[in-house]
Specification:
Blueprint (H helix, E strand, L loop, with lengths): L4 H13 L7 H6 L6 E5 L2 E4 L4 E4 L2 H4 L8 H13 L11 H13 L7 E5 L2 H18 L7 E5 L8 H6 L3 H4 L9 E4 L19 H13 L4 E6 L15 H11 L3 E5 L23 E4 L11 E5 L1 H5 L19 H16 L2 H20 L5 E6 L4 E8 L4 E2 L4 H12 L2 E2 L1 E3 L5 E4 L7 H22 L2
Helix pairs in contact: 4-12, 5-12, 9-10, 13-15
Length: 459
């Protein structure tokens, strides 16, 4: 079918001028008709040809309340009529003040916490790391500059965030990175080097953290940073003993505990914050994505009163860090409207209930398939891992297969992530407003594509 003139113009602009993130643009340029998403409603998006897709990834783990929420659009418009920008270097603004108080009241960091606003997840992580390091210096510990995070984890793309990230493939192009980043094994029960074959967790993953602290010397370590449920690798849920033990180790050794809630926050895992599943109180939390459900760019760091108060006093104690658009009044207004929807519609509770339904249906549909090794996750944050042998858990080879899977799912009207940064997985993270009927369609589509894959591989 011949392309209409507007499509031809869009395609030419893509070929000549567009640069997508984490994308080999040659593949897009060589595509005679690249997919362009034009609009969305609820859990569905449409491309410029009018084809509908269930957005099983909520944009990029972020459109938690779904597309087309007029309440948020109205809040944005109303704030733009009042004032479109206030410098966070000089003055507070009304929506950001209200939002900071709201977030402090909600978070496990503590109701007396302070909130530092940025514009996204990488900036939130970068800010948390800088706050932790300056805090340690203000306490008199100038030698505390190292961090502990996990292998294969993703925490963003700015240099500090990239350094604490554990994905070698995206780190090595930018080395040398920020010095002092240390990494520990993932608490990944399905593939744990220590206890995957055992009935219960052996606890060795946290002993590795303790061993590293001792080896490096606690007086050199500023902070730990970890996602409650690790995204990279496919929705990896640590054992229930994991974070309480990390909290004990950080407290005993004077280390700041940062929980990266950029994806897990605002209902994604079936709790308002993923940290709540483990009942710990971190020193800081990083936020973005679901904070505004991606209606406006906004990120934040929630900081405990103990740490924040260290920066109050002499001029030499102030935080030497800032972001031009941090706490943007329009973004803050969008966040307040978004949080009101999440609370009023009980979307956190819905995510827990629908997440259990999604996993149960996936198990019913896929457990008998020889290529599916593991189905895991929390709330509406679910991963399916592919293997060539269920008994030995031999991982399937990723690479081109992931592109094939994505194409097959897209052709059937489903957007999700096919990822092989660790072992090959399909990740599902739909809007929290997704219906059970839409979940049934997701499961049926994945079952059909898994069957097609097994035919291709003669399994």
């Amino acid at each position: 079918m011949a392309l209409a003139q507007p499509d031809l113009q869009l395609n030419q602009a893509i070929k000549d001028h567009t640069w997508l993130h984490f994308t080999q643009m040659k593949n897009v340029i060589d595509d005679p008709s690249p997919m362009v998403i034009a609009r969305g409603e609820g859990s569905t998006v449409w491309d410029t040809r009018g084809k509908a897709y269930i957005d099983g990834l909520a944009g990029l783990f972020c459109v938690n309340v779904g597309y087309g929420r007029q309440e948020i659009i109205d809040a944005i418009t109303e704030q733009l009529h009042k004032i479109s920008y206030v410098s966070p270097f000089s003055y507070p603004n009304e929506p950001a003040i209200e939002l900071a108080a709201k977030l402090a009241s909600m978070s496990p960091v503590g109701k007396d916490a302070r909130v530092f606003f940025v514009t996204g997840g990488s900036e939130a992580v970068e800010s948390a790391l800088k706050i932790a390091k300056q805090y340690q210096r203000l306490r008199g510990f100038e030698g505390r500059y190292k961090t502990i995070s996990r292998r294969s984890a993703y925490h963003g793309t700015t240099m500090g965030a990239l350094s604490v990230g554990g994905l070698t493939g995206i780190r090595k192009a930018y080395e040398p990175l920020v010095p002092g980043a240390r990494h520990v094994p993932i608490p990944h029960r399905y593939r744990c080097d220590y206890c995957a074959a055992m009935q219960d967790c052996s606890g060795q993953c946290t002993r590795e953290i303790e061993n590293l602290i001792e080896f490096e010397d606690p007086a050199t370590i500023a902070a730990t940073i970890m996602e409650p449920v690790q995204n990279s690798g496919g929705c990896i849920v640590p054992p229930m003993t994991y974070y309480p033990e990390v909290r004990r180790l950080t407290r005993e050794n004077g280390i700041v505990m940062i929980m990266d809630e950029v994806i897990c926050g605002f209902g994604r895992t079936g709790k308002m914050f993923g940290t709540e599943h483990w009942g710990v109180q971190p020193d800081m939390m990083t936020l973005a994505k679901g904070l505004t459900s991606a209606y406006y760019p906004l990120g934040a760091v929630i900081i405990s009163k103990e740490i924040a108060d260290t920066f109050i006093g002499a001029e030499s104690q102030k935080l030497l860090h800032g972001i031009t658009f941090g706490g943007h009044p329009v973004a803050a207004a969008a966040a307040l409207a978004n949080l009101a929807i999440i609370e009023r519609e009980h979307l956190v509770e819905q995510a827990a209930e629908k997440g259990e339904y999604l996993k149960a249906e996936l198990h019913k549909a896929l457990d008998h398939h020889p290529s599916i090794g593991d189905i895991r996750g929390a709330g509406l944050f679910v991963g399916l891992e592919f293997v060539t042998d269920k008994e030995t858990r031999q991982p399937m080879e990723g690479g081109p297969m992931m592109g094939w899977l994505s194409d097959q799912l897209l052709a059937r009207g489903l957007i999700c992530r096919c990822d092989d940064r660790l072992d090959p997985v399909i990740q599902l993270s739909p809007p929290l407003v997704i219906t059970k009927e839409e979940i049934d369609r997701i499961v049926a589509t994945i079952q059909e594509v898994v069957g097609a894959l097994e035919e291709e591989l003669h399994m």
